[in-house]
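Changelog entry

Holo records now carry the ligand SMILES as an explicit input line rather than a separate metadata file. Below, a converted record for S-adenosylmethionine, shown in the new format.
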Amino acid sequence: MTDDAEPAADGGEPQDAIDAQGTRRREELDERVFEYSAGDEQEGIPFVGAGPGNPRLLTVAGKELLEEADLVVHAGSLVNSELLEAYCGHAELVNSVGKDLEELIPLMRDAYEDGRTVVRLHSGDPAIYGAALEQMDALEHEGVPTYFVPGVTSAFAASATLRTQLTLNEVSNHVAFTRPQGKTLDPEEDHISEFVAMGDVTTCIYLGTHAVRETMDRLLEDGHDPETPVAVIYHASWPDEDVIVGSIGTIADQVEAAGYRASALVVIGDAVTGAGYERSYLYGDWANRGAEGEGTSD
Ligand SMILES: C[S@@+](CC[C@H](N)C(=O)[O-])C[C@H]1O[C@@H](n2cnc3c(N)ncnc32)[C@H](O)[C@@H]1O
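Structure line, unchanged by the conversion:
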């Protein structure tokens, strides 16, 4: 907690609020789950996904909410300043980086209770490594309603840039959104090597730009094929986007030469190149077999 941060309104810590909300969740699902759909306008503070960077990749709902906001609390350097300039012209902007829950929650709560329109803006989609729920729980505990507005996660921008699919018939049947071991993930919780071992998984590593060499070294130690394709997409969809394509054996040198230590997505697997896939059933005879074809429509 920072020195000048106010305590929570009820004198409790955010962790107490999170625990209380967790207890409530275990007992019953929030009735709003059945009342609203994603994208519906709702009461409270929206937790909006800004998308990967390009302002055009913000959702229509997100754009409308930002345009109406008096206060936008945003995720700092991962949110493109062009997007803030384009859509938040009249709002007060607060960078959340470096602020803890004890500072952020009263800031948003007080603004909301003063009748200001508040938007919490996360990068990509708030549901992926966004730490959004703990803020929402702490706010809800203090009587401030909240809700999610989804965004385009950076893995989807990366696959579009690579002109490939993350799932591809006969190449990749699964996608893993993951992160490498480090300060917040113990070595036994790092499953990257297991995902790669499965062979038909596209592994999308968030928060791992600084650790590309360690990650690749571990994969080599575990006996993975050094030729396995790897792409590192720096600032996907930003004007300074950069794409590095290599393999488990080469990518660490390539990324180090480029100098990237943050803000990139690492994609491992054959889907990186898109080579070797086979036509799907969707547009073949199989799709026309009546009821048997159900479930193939996307
Ligand atoms: C705290 S996580 C937030 C992820 C975000 N919620 C999302 O859905 O993309 C930050 C990590 O996301 C990845 N990231 C976010 N924006 C990116 C972009 N435009 N291009 C590549 N990677 C990005 C990087 O790996 C970065 O370290």
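Spot-checked after migration. The chain has two domains: 14-152, 155-272. Confidence is low (pLDDT under 50) at residues 1-11.
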